[in-house]
Amino acid sequence: MHSAKENRTPPRLALVLGSGGVRSIAALGIVDVLDDVGLKPDLVVGCSSGALFGACVAAGWAAGQGLDAALKLWSPELTQKKRWRAYVELVAPKLIGFGADFALRDAGLIRARVERAFGDMRIEDLAVPLRIVATDATRGGPVVLTRGRVADAVRASMALPFMFPSVEIDGRRLTDGVLTDPLPVSVANDARALLTVGFRGAMPRRVDRASRLVAQVTTTMINNLQDARLAAARAAGQRMLNFELDIDRRIGLWETAAMPRIFEIGQRAAREQLPAIRRMLELPLAA
Q: What are the DSSP E strand ranges found in 85-225?
C-alpha cells in the first residue's frame, strides 16, 4: 500500500538501491551528479544497505551530509558486541530455549546509531517518496514499507538473520530484505524509468569451515535471485539502466575506509551514463 503522497502522479524516475554493504554508498555519488544537472529521482526504493542510503536520498540530504552520516553510522563495531547467551542457545537449546529471534550480535549499537541519524522522521513525510523492502520472518515473503518511522524500517531491512534480531513493525517480525528481493525493481514498476544500483555478493575465496559453506550457498542464491529480478524487468519492457560499477577489488562488508572512494566511483559512473539516462527519459542531450 502506497502513501497518499505517492498517489498524485506516477513517478518519472525511480532510484532502486539493492544490497551491497558499504558499496551501496555509490548511490549517493550517483545522486550527487544527477542533482547537479537537475535530474532528481521522484521515487526511491531500498533494500538492506540500500534502504539506509536510500533513506538519506529520500530525506533530501546533500551528498556530503549523507556521506558523513554513513561514515558515523556504518562501522565494524556494529558487529563486535556479541550476545554470549546466543552461544549457549546454540549448544544447549533444550536447556535455556531457542527462539525465532536468535541473533549472534547485540543490536543495541545499530539501533542507537540509526535512531540518532533519522530520529522521528516518518517515511510518508520525506522529501521524496520512499519504499523500503524487508522480509516477513514468519511468512517468508517480501514486505514493502511506505509508512512509519524511517529508523524502524531501515533497521528491519538490514536485520541480517543470525547476525541481528528481527524488528517488529505492525505486529510482524521483519528481517533483511535481501532474503526475498535483493534488488527490488518490481517495487518500482509504476515508474516511467528506473536507475538501479545493485551488487553481486562476493563468493568465499575458500570453503574451510561451516560458516563459509553457508556463505557460499546463500550468496549463490541471492546473486541468482537478483539476476532473475533484473531479467524479469527487462522481459517486461521496463525502461531501466543498471549501474555496473567498476570497483577493482573486493570490498569488505564493513570497510568504511573505502566509502569516500566508492562515492567517487558512483559520481564517475553517473557522469559516464548521463547521455544514456537522458535518452531513457527522452530528454534532449546536453550541449
A: 130-136, 142-145, 167-169, 172-175, 193-197
Written in H, E and C, the secondary structure of 200-220 is: CCCCCCCCCCHHHHHHHHHHH
What does the radius of gyration of the chain's CA atoms come to, in whole angstroms? Answer: 19
Kindly state the average pLDDT of the residues 57-79.
81
Annotated active-site residue in 48, 75, 157, 166: 48
Domain ranges within the chain, ordered by starting residue: 13-75+106-280
| Overall CATH class of domain 13-75+106-280 | alpha beta
- Integer Cα distance of 65 and 50 in angstroms: 16
Write the single-letter amino acid at 180: T
- Which residues, other chains included, contact 173 with Cβ-Cβ below 8 Å and sequence gap of 6+? 100, 101, 136, 137, 138, 166, 167
How far apart, in whole angstroms, are the C-alpha atoms of residue 154 and residue 48?
Answer: 7
Look at the block and give the residue holding cell 533483511: 176
106, 152, 176, 181: which one is catalytic?
Answer: 176
Question: Is 176 one of the catalytic residues?
Answer: yes
pTM here is: 0.87
Taking only the tens place, the pLDDT of each residue in 179-214 is 999 999 999 999 999 999 988 877 777 777 776 787
- pLDDT, tens digit, 9 for 90 and up, residues 204-262: 777 777 767 877 888 888 889 999 999 999 999 999 999 988 787 888 777 888 899 99
For 281, phi then psi, to 5°, come to -90, 5
